[in-house]
Amino acid sequence: MMKKLTLILLLVVASLMAWAGPALTAKQAFERLKTLEGTWEGKASGDMDVKVVYKVTGAGSALIETQFPGTGHEMVTVYHLDGDQLVLTHYCAAGNQPSMKLKSSDANTLSFDFTKGSNMKPTDMHMHSMKLSFKAADHVVSDWTSFQNGKAGYVAHFDLKRVK
């Protein structure tokens, strides 16, 4: 009986892994990110109107994401390759700069986790992880999870559609 349950569990896990697709290399994930170039609009955390602009710069070596451009709470995130790692630095309205690296990926999801930060103590509130989901060619969702006092806090949810 236990062998059958174990076999069933392994089949379920294998099926889920196959459905998600293989992990992307850092370079493949970065190329996927660069397809976001342009202007996106939608809702942040359900009810706040949001605009996000993505721009490829540095001869294709970096992607700049600007959230809430031109407002008092504008924030910038810069994505780039560092050797064989895809990394980001988020220049937050909170005045700190958490950095993250790609933890896991597949064709439709990129997940980043905190590696270090500037202008902050480890216990200060900061963005600690980010998950970006490609829902369709012109629809993405990102979830930015904050961290404070050693534990996860609120999640800033962005549901965006490309402006054509």
Give an account of the 3D structure.
With 164 residues, the protein is α+β, with helices and mostly antiparallel strands. The protein has a single domain (23-162), classed as Calycin beta-barrel core domain (Lipocalin), CATH 2.40.128.20. The chain is 17% helix and 55% strand. It has two helices and ten strands; from the N terminus they run ααββββββββββ. Strands 1-2-3-4-5-6-7-8-9-10 form a ten-stranded antiparallel barrel.
CATH class equals: Mainly Beta
CATH topology: Lipocalin
Average predicted local confidence, pLDDT = 89
Runs in which pLDDT lies below 50 for 5 or more consecutive residues are: 4-19
Q: Count the strands?
A: 10
Please tell me what the overall shape is.
globular
Radius of gyration: 17 Å
The largest sheet is: 10 strands, antiparallel, barrel
Helix-residue proportion: 10-25%
What's the structural domain tally?
Answer: 1
Q: Supply the CATH architecture.
A: Beta Barrel
Kindly report how far apart the N and C termini lie: 56 Å
Helix and strand sequence: HHEEEEEEEEEE
| β-sheet strand percentage | over 45%
Q: Strand sequence of the main sheet, in spatial order?
A: 1-2-3-4-5-6-7-8-9-10
Q: Which structural class should the secondary elements be placed in?
A: alpha+beta
CATH homologous group name: Calycin beta-barrel core domain
Tally of helical segments = 2
